[in-house]
Each structure stands twice: as structure tokens, then as C-alpha cells.
Amino acid sequence: MPEFREKADVCIIGAGHAGCEAALACARLGLQTVIFTVNIESIAMMPCNPHIGGSSKGHLVREIDALGGEMGKNIDKTFLQSKMLNRSKGPAVHSLRCQADKAQYSRFMRMILENQENLTIKQTEVCELLFEDSIEKNTENDIKNRLDSIKKKIVGVKILTGGIYECRAVILCTGTYLNARCLCGEAITYTGPNGMQSSTHLSKALEKAGIKLRRFKTGTPARMDRRSIDFSKMEEQFGDERVIPFSYETNPEDVQIKQESCYLTYTNEETHNIIRANLDRSPIYAGVIEGTGPRYCPSIEDKVVKFSDKNRHQVFIEPEGKYSNEMYVDGMSSSLPEDVQLAMYRTVPGLEHCKIVRNAYAIEYDCIDPGQLQLTLEFKHIKGLFSAGQFNGSSGYEEAAAQGLIAGINAAREIQNKDQIVLDRSQAYIGVLIDDLVTKENTEPYRMMTSRAEYRLLLRQDNADLRLRKIGYEVGLISKEQYEYVCEKQKQIEEEINRLKKTVIGASKDIQEFLISKGSSPLRTGTSLAEIICRPEFTYESVAEIDKNRPLLSEAVIEQVNISIKYEGYIERQVRQVEQFKKLEKRFIPENICYEDISGIRIEARQKLAKHRPVSIGQASRISGVSPADISVLLVYIEQMKENSEKG
């Protein structure tokens, strides 16, 4: 029988948020790319909460955009409501969040993929990875028998129909589809999210290739018919009056649309009593679910059990689409049986007569321990095989897209014989995300949070372009015009800060009256405009009256000037901390080091270091179970290795 064969540079397995970014990055960098999906309708699907951004996640989307990714542009075209979170707090934790039209988001992303040069979409299931020398074998048994005996280097994939795609790199972006099963009470269906076909063949092939899998789970709430909800019993939640786009390339005027409302309501003791009475019917508590769930996005059953002192929990009712009556019940994910779900939902004010369109469910799936990956997201023991998204043990669309973009960039650069990129913890939230996944032991789905970033005052969502546009340009995903624009922006910011520091105002009558009228103390001597702006009662905009030579600047430049001046002392302190961090990151560990030979390091630390194979002292210091004392011994040992090498 003739064998179907195709050739490509890169094969992407999975077309969720990670797969889309990975495929677009590879194709835009000039590589012939094929993206495989079990169902084309699932491209960039939002099976859980239909929103993009949120606390810390908004930072990731801005960084994806700054590097040349697509997520920010797509949500700007398809959002229903936009809100900047945490405005009452400092700029380090301001995070943009957009409620998405889930159908439009998926449709628009699919359109981008379909029209991208060098990119082919293929609906099929990938069932096997092919390695060097195995590609020429004619039988499946020959290939399988040799996988464990050869040095692993990816050379292709095999699809369920028997066809082979020869390639130079593969990126695994399987999300929650591998051996997936959905649970709703006693009912179990062996499908992926939203009833989509699961992928049932690839897991065994991955294990045969020496990749260690584990079982995670996540869940999603029910969807309600809008017409059955009484919104008068809920608190209406509006979007921002002035919308800020996610993408730096979006015209701000294009996102000033009429926004949809969301609504806030609460559970109560009646809700909680129904849940407690039926815990034995929940797969989570009945021992049916094997996988570990996310700590920071618990089911309503978990909330009631673990936070028994709380007599209510927030529930947000959010639209799923402009042309859909489905409403998402944010905050009440569950795997309870359908009859219990309906009973508990109907105790919530406004949902007394609700009708469920889609039941809540939990989903279990295979994923990897990301400790098997390098910081580039390439597997340590398989050349050319990369991994991104929820398959790496993370949760969330934004975390997935960020990993997909980096994996796509690095797969392309490896093929092009260029150095791969690694964003460190001082450069980007993406760097924190990947470093945490690869270095730390995560026993549950990982969620990005602002508290995980040590240098979050430097890694604000408002300055992602200033931090990362240059990298995006050097990689090849940002145009020269876009890069020159951000260079000019940086120049204007610096010039304006210098002007404000040098502009001295005296203690004249007009100045004193202005200060007093604003509730500020009068001057005793001349001072700079920058020092006035530093006062808590002032901003850059509010001192315009006494700033006679002010240039005309964009809102984006003004924002950076204001933050830089008001937080100068804190920013300088973090810059010094980063300098110390960089010193440890530049202390590289020899690749051939044998940790078992270092007797002064504790057994646990030796085992952890041998498992993770950190590339630097900085990374080694962040491994769970490795103490400062272990690091000190390691430093001495490396110096001794260096001295012996020089002598010998």
C-alpha cells in the first residue's frame, strides 16, 4: 500500500492558544509549518472562562504582543467588555482584563491562521513521534522497538491514518486533550473539553520516548440561558469608560465600543448545605478523579469544604458572546451531578429559575512534569521536541499562549542555527512563568500571579513594549517601523523626565496659591517640577498649570513619565536587586558536572540538582529542596573543577 508522506520544517500538535502562537511564530519566521488539530472548530477555543487577561495574566498578554504574538490583537477585535483591574493599587499590579466573544475570538484566530503564509492546518490526530533512523523503517513495530535504543532526535510525526510528516522540530501543544475524560457526577464521557474528540493514542508514544506523564484536572461551571436569569437581583458590573487596548498596534479609538455588562451575585448557606449534602456524589470527593486540580481556581465544592467559615462566595454572571444567550457562571465550577447542580444554582439570587444550557464538569487529562524541559521549552533528552501550554502543567489561556510563542520562536531558531532565547525573571512575566515551571516542583496546575514576580515594579503591564520590543525585533516578529516607534517613545520619556528634573519653580505667589489650592504644602525655596510630581497629591497631568513649557506628548509617554518619577526610588532599588540577580544567573554550571560526586551537598539537594540539571547558580538556588548552604558548597566545587581543568 502506498504511504502518504509530506515534508515540513515544524509540526505543531494542537491548535489551542499555545498551538496558535507557536504556529504563527514559526510561519512568520519563514518556516514551513503544519498545525494539527483533532477538530478545526476547536482552534483557539475557550472551553472555560471566555476572557483574556486578568491579574498578572494581563501582563502576559501585553508581553506576548510586545514580542510579536497575536493574542492581544485578537482580543482587541473580539472583546465584549474591558476593565483595568486593581486601579486603586500601585501600577505594578494594574492588569487589563477583557470579556471575550468566545465564538468570534476563535473565528478570528482561525482566519489569521488560515491566511498566514507558510502555515497549513490539518484536521487529524497525531499518534506517534518519529526519531532519527526510525523514519526509514517500514513497519510500526520496527519504529517502536528502536525508539528506546537510539539517541533521541525528532524527525517527524505519524498521524492516525498512517501518513507521515517529516520535519525538523515538533511542538507539543495538546492542552487538556490527551486521554481526556469529563466527569459530571456519576456520568463520565471520554472526550476533550466542550465535548470535543479527545486524543487517545499519543500518550503511549510519549511514554515510550521516555517522557514522564502525570494526571491533572480542571473544571468549568455551567452555562445558563440568559432569558432565565433575573438580573435585577444582581449588581451590574460595567467596563471602563475609556478602554485601553491590549495590543500596542491597536488604535485606541478602535476599541471605544458599546460594552456588555457582567453581573455579581453570591452563594448562601442554602447553596452550601445542598453541596455538603451531596459531596459523596462529587467525583472529587468520591475518589473517582485521579488528577490534581488547580489550587487557585477551586470548584465550588472545594470552596465550601476548605473555606467553611465563609457564608457566601462571589459569583459573576458573564456573557459568552454578542450573538449568544449563554451566560458563564464564574466562580461556581463543579463536577456534581446535573440534578444537584440545578438545585444549588437555583439558590443563588437571580438564578432561582435558571435553565442550564451546558452542565458544569471536571476534566482529567495527561500532561508532563515540566522539569523535563530546558528553559527554552525544548526537552532535555530529545533534540527538536518542544512543549508548551497546559500540557506543561500550567493553567490558563494566557500562560499557554506565552509558552507557545517562546516554543515557536526557539524551534524556528534551532532550525535556523541561531541561539535560542530565554527570558529571565528580571525581563518578563513570561520569564517567571517558564522558570517556575521548569525549575520548581509544581504538583498542581500552575497559575501566574503578580506575587510570583520578584521584580514586578519593573515588569509592569504598561511598559512591556519598552522591555521586550527590541527582542521581538531581533527575533524577526516585530517590524523595523514598530521598533523605531518604541525607540522614539523611549527617547521622549527620557527627555521629558530630564526636563522636569531640571525645570525649577520658585516660591512665587502664583505657585504658592496653586499648591495650597491642591491641598499641598507651600514651598520654602525653589524646587523642580519632578519633586512636585513626587508628592502624593499630584500627577504629571495635574501640574500642567504651572508647567509653561510642556511639550505635546502621547498618553503612553505621559503614563511612563508619571510612573518613573513617582516611583523612582522603588524602581532604582529593584534595579539594584536585578543586578545582583544577574550575577548569579551568569555563574554557569558545567554541563558535565556530576552531582553525586559532591559529598558536601545534602542527598535531597544532590537528587534535585541531578534531576533538573540547572544551567546557572541562580536557577539552582530556586530549586525546591536546595538550600543556601548547598549552593555555597556547589560554588566551591565548581571553582575546584575550574582550577583542575586549568592545571590539567
Description:
The chain has 648 residues and is α+β, with helices and mostly antiparallel strands. 35% of the residues lie in helices and 17% in strands. It is built from 20 helices and 24 strands. The strands form six sheets. Strands 16-17-18-19-15-20 form a six-stranded antiparallel sheet, with no helix packed on it. Strand 9 and strand 10 (164-166) form a beta hairpin. Helix 13 (480-502) crosses helix 16. It is globular. The termini are far apart. The model is unreliable at 136-150 (pLDDT under 50).
- How many β-strands, per DSSP? 24
The chain-level mean pLDDT equals 92
Q: What's the helix count?
A: 20
The low-confidence runs, each spanning 5 or more residues with pLDDT under 50, are 136-150
Q: What is the percentage of strand-forming residues? A: 15-25%
How far apart, in Å, are the first and last alpha carbons? 60 Å
* Strand-pairing-aware structural class: alpha+beta
Largest sheet: 6 strands, antiparallel
Bulk shape: globular
Oligomer: single chain
Fraction of residues in helices?
25-40%
**Strand line-up of the largest beta sheet:** 16-17-18-19-15-20
Q: Measured on Cα atoms, how large is the radius of gyration?
A: 27 Å
